[in-house]
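Possible regression after last week's pipeline update?

I re-ran a chain I had predicted before the update to compare outputs. Posting the input and the new output here so someone can diff against the archived version. Not blocking, just want to make sure nothing changed silently.
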Amino acid sequence: MISGSGEGSRDRDVEFTAEGVEVVLREACETAGLDASGAELLRLGSNAVYRLASLPVIVRIARDPTVLSEMERAIGVARWLEAVDFPATRVLADAAQPIVVRGRVVTFWESVQEQEEFATVGELADLLRRFHWLEEPESLRLPYFDPLAKLSAALTDLTAVSEDDRSFLEARAAKLAKDYDRLDFVLPFGLIHGDANIGNVLRHRDGHAVFIDLDGLALAPREWDLILTALYYDRYGWHSKAEYAEFVHRYGFDLMNWPGYETLADLRELMMVVWIGHQAGASERSAAEFARRMASLRTGEGRDAWGAF
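New output (post-update):
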């Protein structure tokens, strides 16, 4: 890791807004010897993601300023996946990274494509099946995935919602923690992507599907990598019945037939609601989505109206 901060005004941290991250982008590219002119902001969520105009390069700026060690691990993961020829996003070879600019952690990646195109649910299944057979080197020091600890920390930091909503979420989390501890996982414990869903599988410009977003690689029951696709089909209607059937056929296991499915689905869904709760103070769209999701948790209805973020 190197620091991209200079002296004087360049030492000051910036807010995680479109204006703030643009400052970070310019200074990070200057440090890396890249041209930021004409860069396109693709998304502003957990990361600010830019596509450079000058080279096929993606720049990611993390919202959370404490993720330096995680991003150092993500860089190591990407280099390992390249070494074993697994289809995933590649880090920019010539850039020393990650770097810290204005209190923000910045990484540089090879661009997969010029226009964003997602792969299919079936290709996601193929990648996951192959990915779950990989044996990660101990040198990566991948963490054990603890969803309860992650959820507890996220609830502690949840300040953009009402006290009533927060109390409801905490009570639901406490109940699910007890249910989760009683689960009997049936798939092998091992390497997971951590956020395996269709939004993290892109079509490479040469045609094949690749994993992106390597920040969450961890060791856990493999069921965690199947839950989002099942949820997207079963509760939100974001995948069709045919797409989910293709996913099950190509991966070789139907999570919805596992007795622990509902508990795992409820827990993963709660994590999704808490995540959007953290964004609720940033935009009217996020606030409206959080309210919609809270109403669903309270009533059990209306999940088919959820928006994808």
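Follow-up from reviewer: compared with the archived run. The first helix runs from residue 18 to 32. Marking as no regression found.
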